[in-house]
Amino acid sequence: MPILHDHAGIFRISSQRIQMPAPSSPHPLFETYAKFGELNFSSLKEELPAIRGYLEQFPAETQAIEGYRAVRSFLKSYAGNESTFNSYRTHVERLLLWTLLKSRTPLLAMRRTQAESFMEFCLAPDPSWVGPVVKSRFTRLGARKKTATDTYVLNPDWRPFSQTVAKEERKRAEEENRPALQDTYRLAQGSIAQIFAVCGSFFQHAIDEGFCEQNPFRAVKQKSKYKERNTDNQDTRILTSLQWDFVLETAELLAAEDTKYERTLFIVATIFAMYLRVSDLVGRDNWKPTMGDLRKDSAGNWWYHVVGKGNKAGKISVRDDYVENYLKRWRLHQGLSPLPGFRESTPLIATQRGRAGLSDRHIRVLLQEVFDRALQRMQAEHWPDEDVGRLRAASLHWLRHTSATFDAPHRDMKDLQVDLRHNSLSTTQNVYYNSEDEKRAYSVKRLPMKERS
Predict the structure, then answer these.
(1) Of 188, 241, 343, 346, which is most buried with the most CB atoms under 10 A?
(2) Do residues 176 and 385 lie in contact, with contact meaning Cβ atoms separated by under 8 Å?
(3) Model's pTM, two decimal places?
């Protein structure tokens, strides 16, 4: 309790607690996936003091602690999958912060109009709520070696909404030795739809757990405004045949110059050959890819056995060209037999020191070097910018889409769907078999602007 000085010069103790002003800026409320799993969900004892202190500064009528507990309960129900947890944490954390800082009302007392206001805020958040992508939400104060007594404080660069400079613009800026141009913040349509869906799921969970009695997002009248629409932008994320030839040839040239790039060449070829996602090479908590996951059946066909999204097991058909020219090459480079043995436990990829597996980030860094070198080669050969441009924006996931686009005219739609592991055949059809688009484009392509007699 505060000590006050009276008129007689005698100190007395006030019976009133001085109310700290409520926070005015957003603050991260949840830690990493691993740290979240260590919390005591029956109390707030394990939360960082920085989080508890922040929540306690809000007026009692905002019910900040109650809202936090409800969000924490919701996230706990998704604690079995790290990527889902991280995505859902982003959206419901924004929601809780918005109710505390902008609406200044209890989260669990939200109404339809407030849900609509929140969605509009997400479409155009305050500039002070938008910042660069940061690696950590909290910064550790202490010695180099972590200890249980270390103090964690807010990373001042963290914001609820993150914005990155478009990769192509960043590359152009580097080439032209100028600052990158920052676009106005804009959410992708898919992100808008996900915010709406996750917040609706949160309130359904809150109802089921007895935290509240109604779902304000279900009551939103113009739901279609926030539902995902197919924007047909898939063709902007593929390389042309020319660009892909330069990428693969660049990886091969690098490997020929320095054997440390043999691994990079194998990764590029493997992703392209089987339409892989990065998780198909990195693995999951319950599965790490090995050479034994590449298996030959009794008919002589090769298959790559994976554990994909939602821990769903599947197998992908493997083309002979890949086996003969890239798989064998990689294995021989490692001193292995040309082809994998039955249930072979050798890691599919490993660090240069031999440790099994690579991180998602490590694989992306390896591929980015190939994209950058391929871009430099095309520029050195004076290819026009229209042929070079997409390489500035290319990423690992582009290889999956590029390969599927190239193969679609030569494969049965159902076969391609299974290898891509799409749940719906219509997804494969809409993305890779756009014959209607081609017919529509052809019907107008040669029509003149003038002299239509």
Answers:
(1) 346
(2) no
(3) 0.60
| Percent of the chain residues topping a pLDDT of 90 | 56
Q: What are phi and psi of 294, to 5 degrees?
A: -95, 110
* Sequence-separated (6 or more) residues with CB below 8 Å from residue 229: 189
> Which tokens sit at 113?
């109009």
C-alpha count within 13 angstroms, C-beta hemisphere, residue 183: 13
Domain boundaries, the chain: 33-175+184-226, 235-441
Query: What's domain 235-441's architecture?
Result: Orthogonal Bundle (1.10)
Q: How many Cα atoms within 13 Å fall on the side-chain side of residue 400?
A: 19
Give the model's pLDDT for residue 8: 39
Burial of 180: CB neighbours in 10 Å, binned 0-12, 13-18, 19+: middle
Q: Which of 22-36, 224-238, 268-282, 331-345 has the lowest mean pLDDT?
A: 224-238
Residue type for position 94: R
List strands edge to edge, sheet with 313-318. 294-296, 302-307, 313-318
Q: What is the pLDDT of residues 353-380, one digit of tens each?
A: 878 888 888 999 999 999 999 999 999 9
Residue 138: closest CA among 146, 107, 104: 146
C-alpha dihedral (242, 316, 330, 398), degrees to nearest 10 = 30
Q: What confidence tens digit (pLDDT) does each residue in 206-252 have?
A: 999 999 999 999 988 777 777 655 444 455 688 999 999 999 999 99
